[in-house]
Design a protein that fits this description.
By secondary structure, the protein is α+β, with helices and mostly antiparallel strands. The protein has a single domain (6-302), classed as T-fold (Roll), CATH 3.10.520. The chain has helices at residues 32-54, 57-60, 74-83, 97-112, 189-202, 216-219, 239-258, 292-298; strands spanning 6-9, 15-19, 22-29, 117-122, 125-130, 135-141, 149-156, 163-167, 181-186, 211-215, 229-234, 264-269, 272-276, 280-282. A 9-stranded antiparallel β-sheet has the order 1-2-3-4-5-8-9-12-13. Helix 3 (74-83) packs across helix 5 (189-202), helix 4 runs antiparallel to helix 5 and helix 5 packs antiparallel against helix 7.
């Protein structure tokens, strides 16, 4: 039995929306009445999104090609549009689902009320709204199970960046690669989501004995990756092997950046980080954390 969509306010005033696999943390900035109107609009739009996506799942789980059928739903079309420029590699519209959902809810908010800033965070895939004189400073973590800060980026209202997303084998989605985390900044959250998937897939050492893989379908019979072998464990790697895997991912990131599909990328593997693009700066201090609450406190200085 599926539970109905849920909403709550966190102790710091942010809005939490949950429905099945979708889990959003939302924060808006502006006049009090505008913020409340935006939160109400976010909830109204959120309540039907999962059902809309489920109605078109077979199409959304199919490999994207230039000739793919166009889905009908607004979020589904956003997913398909995001992956279309990337379909020279294996990718499905599901690679953009988290970012597209975040975008759709954010669009509902800014259509409902005047806001100076706002974000919708869908499990680390984040859609941003900024007026021209505002900014966000965002922090990036390497592993969701043992998070620490690896870099930061200042995103202003004058930048092209309006979305960021993270992919990797330790995340909530499967990966064909071995990166712990690949964080992408792009013009939209949906594009960032899809691009992060491809760059994370490219960070790899095919056939390496320390890397354990399994068919995606064995881990999740509904996975859009089917029988493709996804990473389930990465053992010790030599420094030159880490560099080789990251270089492969960096090549893919540069290819996408040169095509105008992303602005910047941070790639993380076994404690080593590579940066592509000028927007991301490495952190000046290592901030290990044990709980999400500790991570939240550590990143407070990155939210102004």
């Amino acid at each position: 039995m599926r539970f109905p969509p849920q909403r709550s306010r966190l102790s710091d005033g942010r809005l939490h929306l949950h429905d099945g696999p979708i889990d959003l943390i939302i924060e808006a900035f502006g006049e009090d009445a505008a913020v409340e109107a935006a939160y109400a609009a976010a909830w109204r739009r959120f309540t039907t999104i999962l059902d809309e996506l489920c109605a078109e799942l077979p199409l959304l789980r199919a490999q994207a090609t230039r000739d793919s059928a166009q889905p009908e739903g607004v979020v589904a079309r956003c997913m398909a549009d995001a992956v279309l420029p990337l379909c020279d590699r294996f990718i499905t519209p599901m690679a953009a689902v988290a970012g597209a959902v975040a975008e759709e809810v954010l669009n509902a908010m800014i259509a409902a009320a005047p806001l100076s800033r706002a974000y919708v965070n869908n499990g680390g895939d984040i859609a941003l709204h900024l007026l021209s004189d505002k900014h966000f400073t965002v922090g990036m973590v390497d592993r969701p199970d043992r998070p620490s800060l690896i870099g930061s980026a200042v995103i202003t209202g004058r930048d092209l960046v309006r979305g960021l997303a993270t992919s990797g084998w330790r995340g909530r989605s499967f990966s064909l690669g071995i990166a712990e985390a690949v964080t992408v900044l792009a013009a939209s959250a949906a594009i960032a989501d899809a691009a992060a998937t491809l760059v994370a897939n490219a960070v790899d050492l095919p056939g390496h004995p320390a890397i354990r893989r399994a068919p995606a379908s064995a881990r999740d019979p509904q996975s859009d990756l089917g029988e493709r072998r996804v990473t389930v464990d990465v053992g010790p790697l030599a420094p030159r092997e880490i560099d080789e895997a990251l270089a492969a991912g960096l090549d893919e990131a540069e290819r996408l950046r040169n095509a105008g599909l992303l602005e910047a990328v941070a790639l993380q593997l076994h404690g080593r980080t590579l940066l592509c693009g000028a927007k991301i700066a490495p952190t000046t201090r290592h901030l290990p954390a044990q709980t999400p609450a500790e991570v939240r406190r550590q990143l407070e200085y990155l939210r102004v």
